[in-house]
Amino acid sequence: MKEHKPQSKWKNKLHEVIYEADTPSGKLFDIVLFILIIISVILVMLESVDEFDQRYHKTLLTLEWVITIFFTLEYIARLISIKKPLKYVFSFYGIIDFLSTIPLYLSYILAGSQVLLAVRAFRLLRIFRILKLVKFMGEASQLQSALKASRAKIAVFIYVVLILSVIMGTLMYLVEGDKAGFTSIPRSIYWTIVTLTTVGYGDIAPQTNLGQLLATVIMILGYGIIAVPTGIVTAEFTRNKKNKEVDDKSVLVHVNTQACPSCSIEGHRDDATHCFNCGHPL
Amino acid sequence: MKEHKPQSKWKNKLHEVIYEADTPSGKLFDIVLFILIIISVILVMLESVDEFDQRYHKTLLTLEWVITIFFTLEYIARLISIKKPLKYVFSFYGIIDFLSTIPLYLSYILAGSQVLLAVRAFRLLRIFRILKLVKFMGEASQLQSALKASRAKIAVFIYVVLILSVIMGTLMYLVEGDKAGFTSIPRSIYWTIVTLTTVGYGDIAPQTNLGQLLATVIMILGYGIIAVPTGIVTAEFTRNKKNKEVDDKSVLVHVNTQACPSCSIEGHRDDATHCFNCGHPL
Amino acid sequence: MKEHKPQSKWKNKLHEVIYEADTPSGKLFDIVLFILIIISVILVMLESVDEFDQRYHKTLLTLEWVITIFFTLEYIARLISIKKPLKYVFSFYGIIDFLSTIPLYLSYILAGSQVLLAVRAFRLLRIFRILKLVKFMGEASQLQSALKASRAKIAVFIYVVLILSVIMGTLMYLVEGDKAGFTSIPRSIYWTIVTLTTVGYGDIAPQTNLGQLLATVIMILGYGIIAVPTGIVTAEFTRNKKNKEVDDKSVLVHVNTQACPSCSIEGHRDDATHCFNCGHPL
Amino acid sequence: MKEHKPQSKWKNKLHEVIYEADTPSGKLFDIVLFILIIISVILVMLESVDEFDQRYHKTLLTLEWVITIFFTLEYIARLISIKKPLKYVFSFYGIIDFLSTIPLYLSYILAGSQVLLAVRAFRLLRIFRILKLVKFMGEASQLQSALKASRAKIAVFIYVVLILSVIMGTLMYLVEGDKAGFTSIPRSIYWTIVTLTTVGYGDIAPQTNLGQLLATVIMILGYGIIAVPTGIVTAEFTRNKKNKEVDDKSVLVHVNTQACPSCSIEGHRDDATHCFNCGHPL
After folding, report:
1. What are the tens digits of pLDDT across the range B190-218?
2. Would you call B142 helix, strand, or coil by DSSP?
3. D228-281 per-position pLDDT tens digit
4. Beta strands in D120-169 (DSSP E)
5. What kind of architecture, by CATH, is found in domain C9-132?
6. How far is it, in rounded angstroms, from Cα D167 to Cα D214?
7. Report for A146-150, B16-20, C167-171, D252-256: range of highest mean pLDDT
8. Does A9-132 match A138-250 in CATH topology?
9. Min distance A97 CA to chain D CA atoms (Å)
């Protein structure tokens, strides 16, 4: 017990720095982490560009090792300083932390695992943890609540879009056949979604007259259907706004044009019997 | 009559299981049907992928036969257990049920009818019947009512879009000629709709300067026009929401400017015969 | 004067049939005209499809002559029955009527004027005149008024979009050069509008890294900017709705569920102390 | 001092003409400038079209010299007539004015600087200064305030879209590999944004089944996500409108939680000094 206490103190300090953002050292840690994450994601991107990688391979690798060692130490520190390390290991951020640290080591052990180096880009997700701490997400929560409130309606909407896509995709497969890229029903459905969402790559495009007519119907449908999620979310936002406005200490009061007979002030509530300014009976 | 009664009971039981979803056995039947429909639609999709079909043709065919036989038995059971079988046969779901069961049999009888096997994908539509029963569609009905209320406006909108497409398509046909794929007016109209809905495949694209200028106008039109259906549906949603909110204790009442002859209070309902404040007849 | 009167009567009758839609014969005339316009536009479309034209050239030409003669007679009748023929000739519909009748005659007189046959598709515009008469446009007028109210805002919006396109197009021309199709500033602007409106043909696409980065900015701008016309039109629609509901003398009053002890009527204001119907104290 | 005064007067006059728009000569100057800017931008565009430039090179160059000299004189006049010339030189419009005047001179001094001639198109930005003066921007300011109010939410939205693009782009790079154009992570991210914003060029398109499935998810996400900025901006517009409407007799009053010391009634206005119910001083 005696031994444990000072260690615990040291652990507590570490926990404060790593997991919290209220102390100056905790804030500093978050800012350093934030910058390192951004740099490391940019490094991963640049590495994937062949011409760039060939010229600066050594520099990129050195920087990557520095960052990976930092992230490894951070991962170990997180494990040590928390009370239930296993819970952290299998939590969402625990898995992200592990996956974004391990690929560089693996690429030396396992042949062919170089391909996994791109996984390090998921480090970007770690940014959300930092943002959560520093309470940057005030506005985001409003967006979230609006989306959450309209979740059920959006689910129904996506469900209808998917069924529509399967039906229309099958029809296009029947109409167009193997010509023009409609080689199978799944590919036809892929094309239907490309069209319905108004993306329109053009890698697959109908060639027959009937196919083009059907495509026209799908396009106008997609053009109109987009109004539905927009309508849902907008209605939710408008409602949110209204609730918020009325929320605190500001109330929509019916005010009449009556002037106080004593002080001539205007703007009395409809149900007022005395002037709110001088107390004279109205 | 004596003979009829027990048979009727047996039929009633079958009717309950197949057509309703309130009893445990009815629910079970719906769930089994739901899963089978999903599996069968996935099978139809996989079959249409050549490489997949060549490798697993036998397995796919066996599974398909199992499902088809189940659907055949279900179709017969539906015919037996309902009072007016003919009405069912020619109803929307009756036709869907028949069309999604028959193709596999036909493919053995009629040469060249293999092409119709894709029709089985329409089985997906049967899902709507199940969802209707289990009352999943609570949210959907709200969407439906919003869309129904704005039906007339959306019709006018689509009508204007179509006329615009014909006019613009003809103009583009005159401007671009056979170059760049504007080979006929219908194809030009197809291109106009592709552009107006912002899909933009790029299989046909204007080459001349005048054509590109006109295309620009169409694009900005399409970009702006999309605001119309969105506005219509959103206004409908917002109204729906408001009506619901006001529903409880706050009502929109027609109020006239009449003042009570006794207490001079104002704000009486149009149908009021006495002052709500002092009770004096109005 | 004596000669004039009976002729005037005959003219009046003709005027009624052609220009109005309140009499049975006027309605019939409009319906016949409507059908003929639709048929004639479909004919023009089919003619422009080469394979179709080659096979049925004679039938198409015969039908076209029937319709052209009918339209010619109609044009003459319109000229005769109206008081100020010149005003009609130079009115919007007068010009449309003339332009959609003359091409077939011209194609025999002037060599090379066959290209103008497509102009006949503009006959479609004549439909609007008929719809105006039969008052089909009830819903349309609501759309129109919403659009008219937000006209100024939409103009500013389009103006900003155009300036943005010129600036961004010039930047892309500088960045991409002649590679990848950015051969001149106007073409670059064309590409910018194709991208900003999310149409995205892909006939011109950035190849350099900087160009793709800039394109990304334009896309996200376009994706966000579309919210502006939608917001404008939606706010207008919502307001229209509200105005209609609240229009005259209707106020949002808090009503409770209390029933009058004397007359049992419900719907009293929260602050009511007497029944508004019988005056009994609540 | 004596010498200075009349010069100052002359400078004041010049300042009035150039920087203001309230006097007739100031208005005239603005209109001339407006027309010259439009003409010059059109000239720059036409010059960039090779075929046009080759034919009319001399005319274009002459006109360009006329406009450049006018703009040079204007620039000098602006420098002279303002009190703090340096502040103008380094202001936004000062830099725009300089950049849009200098390229023609530079093209004679520096070899290879012809490429910069396109920079002159940025002269278009100068139009905003003129519009600001003539108060054309009444409607625009309303748009601006709505956008400004929803700035924070739009920032969060764009931020989420960008992170989503990086994650999805990396996934597509892993899934599609070098086939089909996904040669690096930045290019993959470019493709993801092209898809998410529903632009869809089709220069890069997924070829594998898994890639097309993932693309489908991105499309539906993008199709739904567009509802968010629209919802934000629309809610802002609707609120703007409402505030304006409520203006007449119903006012949003700040109410505090203070209770009357005499009758304990709550809901007093912040500026109230007496209870509105009993008249007791607060």
Report:
1. 999 999 999 999 888 898 889 999 999 99
2. helix
3. 888 888 888 877 655 554 433 334 444 555 556 666 665 555 566 666 666 666
4. none
5. Up-down Bundle (1.20)
6. 12
7. C167-171
8. no
9. 15
Q: What is the ipTM of this complex?
A: 0.76
Which residue is it, tokens 């194609």? Answer: C107
Cβ-nearest to C230 among D125, D234, D240 = D234
Average pLDDT score over chain D: 79
- Neighbors of chain A by Cβ distance (3+ pairs < 8 Å): B, C, D
Query: Which residues does chain C have within 8 Å of residue A207's beta carbon, measured at their own beta carbons?
Result: none
Stated as kind and residue range, the H or E segment containing C233 is helix C227-246
Query: CA B116, CA B107: separation in Å to the nearest integer?
Result: 8
Segment D152-211, tens digit of pLDDT: 778 878 888 888 899 899 999 888 877 778 888 899 999 999 999 999 998 888 988 899
Going from the C-alpha of C21 to that of each of C18, C30, D195, the distances in angstroms are 8, 7, 51
Q: Is C186 part of the contact surface with chain B (CB cutoff 8 Å)?
A: yes
Nearest-Å Rg of the Cα atoms of chain C is 30
Burial C9-34 (b: 16+ CB within 10 A, else e): eebeeebbbbeebeeeebeebbeebe
Percent of chain C with pLDDT over 90: 17
In chain D, the residue whose alpha carbon lies closest to the alpha carbon of C159 is D140
Rg, Å, chain B Cα set: 30
Q: What is the mean pLDDT of residues D89-109?
A: 87
Q: CA of C176 to nearest chain B CA: how many angstroms apart?
A: 19
- Helix A4-19 to helix A50-81 angle (10° resolution) is 140
- Picking from C173, C185, C231, the nearest residue to D146 by CB comes out as C231
Instruction: Using the CB atoms, write b or e for D174-207: b if 16+ within 10 Å.
Output: bbbeeebebbbbbbbbbbbbbbbbbbbbbbbbbe
Q: Tell me if C200 and D194 make a contact (CB, 8 A cut-off).
A: yes
- Read off the pLDDT of residues B68-84 as tens digits, 9 standing for 90 and up: 999 999 999 988 888 88
Alpha carbon of B95: minimum distance to chain C alpha carbons (Å): 33
Q: What is the pLDDT of residue A137?
A: 55
Assign B273 a pLDDT band (cuts: 50, 70, 90): low
Alpha-carbon span B73 to B14, nearest angstrom: 12
Q: Domain A138-250 is of which CATH architecture?
A: Orthogonal Bundle (1.10)
Q: Which residues of A touch C42 (CB under 8 A)?
A: none
Would you kindly state where each structural domain of chain C is located, as residue ranges?
A: 9-132, 138-250
Say if residue C144's pLDDT is above 50.
yes
Q: Find, among B185, D48, B210, the residue nearest to C182 by Cα.
A: D48
For residue C246, name the pLDDT band (cuts at 50, 70, 90). very low
Smallest Cα–Cα separation from D125: which of D92, D103, D166?
D92
pTM for the whole thing? 0.79
Cβ-Cβ pairs closer than 8 A, B with D, add up to: 10
For residue D269, give the 3-state DSSP assignment.
Answer: strand
Instruction: Using the predicted structure, report yes or no on whether residue A193 has a pLDDT greater than 90.
Output: yes
Query: Are the Cβ atoms of D48 and C173 closer than 8 angstroms?
Result: yes
Closest CA of chain A from B208, distance in Å: 21
Chain C touched by D166 (CB under 8 Å) = no
**Within the 111-140 window of chain A, which residues sit less than 8 Å (CB to CB) from chain D?**
115, 118-119, 121-122, 124-125, 127-128, 137, 139-140
Which tokens is D61 given?
A: 């160059």
Contact at CB, C198 and A202, closer than 8 angstroms = no
Q: Chain D within 8 Å of C158 (Cβ-Cβ)?
A: no
CB contact under 8 A, D201 and B198: no
3-state secondary structure of B256: coil
Contact indicator for B198, B224 with CB cutoff of 8 Å: no
